Protein: ABC transporter domain-containing protein
Organism: Actinophytocola xinjiangensis
Amino acid sequence: MAVIELDHVTKTYKSRGRKTLANNDVSLSVNEGEVFGLFGHNGAGKTTIVNQLLGLLRPDSGSIMIAGKDVVKEPNLGRYLCSVQPQSRTPLGELTPRAVTQIMGKLRGIDDAEVERRTKELFGKLDIEQWADVQGNKLSGGVLRLTGFCMAAVAPGRAVILDEPTNDVDPVRRRYLWSAIRDLTRDGTAVVVVTHAIREAESAVDTIAILNEGKVLVQGNAREIKDRTAGDQMKLEAVAKAGEEQFVKPEWAESLKLAEAELVLTFPRDLATEALRWAGEQRDRGLVAQYSLTEITLEDMYIELIGKAVDGVQR
Ligand SMILES: Nc1ncnc2c1ncn2[C@@H]1O[C@H](COP(=O)(O)OP(=O)(O)OP(=O)(O)O)[C@@H](O)[C@H]1O
């Protein structure tokens, strides 16, 4: 069942006589128990969607329903039905992570014992207990960001919206964070993650939408979109030790690109043996250093789709 439904939402900003079409006929749907990745370039319109979900902005046209409630008609319901981690770091001043997380839990209406239990659970899961009682103005950016997540997760609404939750967070705690994000879905909460970290989001999201210039370029199950776009392709990545003139695209390859010493060839999956043999030969000739054969990633697919969209506009 859909928790979030945007139907033909259009939003234009007007400032100093200039109009910016931030969301152009956007329709999106996020189901119960789903982690939904919202991707797009800077200025694609992601935060504008978030602010409309929270009732902080009103669309020019279109409807926004959360858990069956019309948040365009009743904007305050957006903040009640969704808990949010904003893009900006949470400024705590002299308050501690434990204090702000507990305040947020109580504001969202859960009882003291449950607030305490959830706070302990989240801090343990993210391994930030050692900073739980340190004043916010003495904390690192990563811990502040994780505290922002705990504030959104302590008493989740029907949907939790996380705007760039992994920024500033170290690689180990990023893993803990993605696991905590998945935990949120267990009782049916829908989670929307706005992020540029597509590579690491790949294993954590169920469905995605890619925004380009305010429009939805593609939307649906992440795996299916990847299979549709990448087909049965794989890629060979290698560190090039020679210039472009030394590399000629082999006939088994569909593409060969060299940029900043990174050599990437794509090829059909059933030609992996040829690709490996070729890579070994290049290494023996001293033209490449280490190499690896990998699946096409969601990030590769994102770059390809955005590239096609830009080409389409330029043509
Ligand atoms: N208050 C505003 N007034 C005028 N234009 C705005 C305002 N807020 C955003 N915009 C413009 O609307 C467009 C969409 O902005 P938005 O912040 O939604 O993008 P985004 O996808 O969240 O970007 P980022 O990834 O950089 O955070 C951009 O062109 C931006 O410059």
